[in-house]
Amino acid sequence: MKVLVTGAAGQIGSELIQALRDRYGNQNVVASDINREAGEKLSGSGPFEYGDCTRYEVMKEIIQNHGITTIYHLAAILSAVAENNPQLAWNVNINGLYVMLELAREFNSSLFTPSSIGAFGPTTPRNSTPQDTIQRPTSMYGVTKVSGELLCDYYYQKFGVDTRGVRYPGIISNVTLPGGGTTDYAVEIYYEAIRNKTYTCFLKEDSYLDMMYMPDALNAAILLMETDSKKLKHRNAFNVTAMSFSPKEISREIQKHIPEFKIKYHIDPIRQGIADSWPKSMDDSAARMEWGWSPYYDLEKMTQDMIAVLKKRFQSS
Ligand code: NAD
Ligand code: SER
After folding, report:
1. Relative to the CA of 169, which ligand 2 atom is closest?
2. Quick check: CB of 53 below 6 Å from ligand 2?
3. pTM higher than 0.85
4. Domain map of the chain by residue range?
5. pLDDT band at 93 (very low <50, low <70, confident <90, very high)
6. Which protein residue has the closest C-alpha to ligand 1 atom 18?
7. Helix axes 299-316, 247-255, angle to 10 degrees
């Protein structure tokens, strides 16, 4: 098995690389990104290739040279950045995915790519959002995500490419900062709670969104890719979630560890508008039934871990 991870320097990629290298061997997992500086740090434990996923010839050479059999395609533009630069988001999220699907078809490779809670919109049921439901997103990020889901389904049905994917909620982690999304507040709040005991949140106190801690997000990707293909009915765009909370609730959880912590609010209308169009909580029973998805971390366990890890890091620096 030879694995390629695009967008490997990002929030998810930088941790998925290590998880895959631990599992399949350092030399069997190739990291790739256009962020050369961050990417080169990944070259300490295995191969790194500079590569723009929208460029067919560049990506073809990487896949050919390394004999890639499995692609985790993570290169993308996240929701808030996409809303500020919709043309860039379309190019990377759609043309980049198209290039990687074409190469997966040509080289008989399997392909995992994440969709998102952003693939839903204001007309989607917001509570216990079903696996199969109305998808009319109003953000450019959402438009690219729902189009990507359809494109992955098409490549499976038309060409038999083994495409698989999940709809990730907001991912919370402590290694690499998030890349410009609407759920980024739920990462920033831990860093600021430890450094400054205060955080100014760009979403309203009662904005509920689905979230997940990074170890569960990595498990979801690897478990889905290792599942016997015959068990999968949906293949792409499985709803997966671990918890749903609001800024007020996460701040109360942090106060259990840092009683003097205070949250303030200064609403960003763009990101608030995006959050208001996304599910408050998804129904992930299809993932649970088809490939045994089950998260470990809830808000309490995640907060304990985030605070312990970050306290240790900031105290020693
Ligand atoms: P990120 O923004 O942290 O990282 C994306 C990476 O892609 C960056 O390292 C960037 O340099 C790279 N990149 C951008 N344009 C590129 C190009 N043209 N060619 C090659 N690389 C390029 O994103 P992430 O949070 O790690 O997200 C990974 C995937 O998961 C994306 O598809 C995202 O939509 C999805 N997702 C993430 C979250 C989350 O909360 N992090 C939630 C839902 C879905
Ligand atoms: N965390 C991501 C974002 O906010 C969700 O896809 O863009």
Report:
1. 5
2. no
3. yes
4. 3-169+213-239, 170-211+242-280+297-316
5. very high
6. 52
7. 60
